[in-house]
Specification:
Helix content: 40-55%
Distance between the termini: 32 Å
CATH class: Alpha Beta
CATH architecture: 2-Layer Sandwich
Structural class: alpha+beta
Radius of gyration: 18 Å
Number of helices: 3
CATH topology: Double Stranded RNA Binding Domain
C-alpha cells in the first residue's frame, strides 16, 4: 500500500536545473511541502523519495489526511479505531480455542 503510493507519487515528480551548489531541484506539486535538491538528477530523485517518506510519516503521526494519488490512498486510523480493530481480532482468535 505505502510503496504503491510512493511509486505513484514519484511518477508525478518534476525536476529542474537551478543555479545553486546542488543544481537539481525536484518537487511533487500535488503534495505540498515535498521537495528536494541534489548535485545530480539521481541524487535529487533519491532525496525526493526520502523527503516523501518523511512527509508521509509526519502526516500519519499528526493525523493529517494524505491526499489520494492516482487512486492510491494512505488511510489514517484513529487510535480508538485501531484499538477496537485489535480487540475484535483478539476476541475472534481467542474464541476459536
Amino acid at each position: 500500500m505505502i510503496i504503491e503510493f510512493i511509486r505513484a507519487a514519484m511518477k508525478l515528480a518534476k525536476y529542474e536545473i537551478i543555479e545553486n551548489e546542488e543544481k537539481f531541484y525536484g518537487t511533487i506539486s500535488e503534495l505540498k511541502g515535498v521537495w528536494s535538491t541534489g548535485k545530480t538528477l539521481e541524487e535529487c530523485r533519491e532525496n525526493l523519495e526520502s523527503s516523501l517518506e518523511d512527509w508521509i510519516l509526519a502526516c500519519v503521526s499528526k493525523g493529517i489526511e494524505v491526499p489520494e494519488i492516482e487512486g492510491r490512498q494512505i488511510m489514517i486510523m484513529s487510535e480508538h479505531s485501531l484499538k477496537k480493530d485489535w480487540d475484535n481480532e483478539y476476541d475472534e482468535r481467542w474464541n476459536r480455542y
